[in-house]
Amino acid sequence: MPLKKCPDCNQDVSVRAETCPHCGAPLKFTFLFSRIFATSILSGCLLVAFGYLGIMILTVWIVNKEMNELEKDPELRQGFLEQMRTEREKIERNDKDKPNSETTPEAEGDSTNE
C-alpha cells in the first residue's frame, strides 16, 4: 500500500487514511487536493501541447494553400520568384558592405596582446 507523509507530523501514513494515526490530523482533503493539483498540471500541459500542435497544423495548411496558389497562377509565381531574387541580392550586397571582423585592426590588436 502506498504511503505519504503527514503534513503535520511528517510521519508515513497510508494514502487511504482519513486521519493521521500518529497526530490525528485530517488527511483526505490534503491528499485529494494533491491529486487534483497533479491532474490539473497534466491537463494544462496537454492543453499547451495540443495548442502548439494546432498552430503547427494551421501553419502547414496556410503554407500549402499559398504554394498551391503559386502553382496555379504563373504570373503570381513569377512575381514571387522575382521578389525572392531581389531580396537575396539585397542580403548579398549587405554582406559585402559589412567589414569582416577578422580583418579589423581591433581584432588584430586583441590577438597580439596574448
What does this structure look like?
The protein has one domain (3-98). The longest helix is centred in the middle third of the chain and has 45 residues, at 28-72. It is built from three helices and two strands. The chain has 114 residues and is mainly alpha-helical.
Brief overview, please?
With 114 residues, the protein is mainly alpha-helical. Helices cover 68% and strands 5% of the residues.
How big is the Rg? 32 Å
Order of helices and strands: EEHHH
Number of helical stretches of at least 4 residues: 3
Main beta-sheet strand count, sense and barrel state: 2 strands, antiparallel
Which SSEs are present, and which pair or pack?
Layout lengths: L2 E3 L6 E3 L13 H45 L1 H24 L7 H8 L2
Antiparallel strand pairs: 1-2
Features:
114 residues; mainly alpha; two-stranded antiparallel ribbon; 3 helices; 2 strands; 68% helix
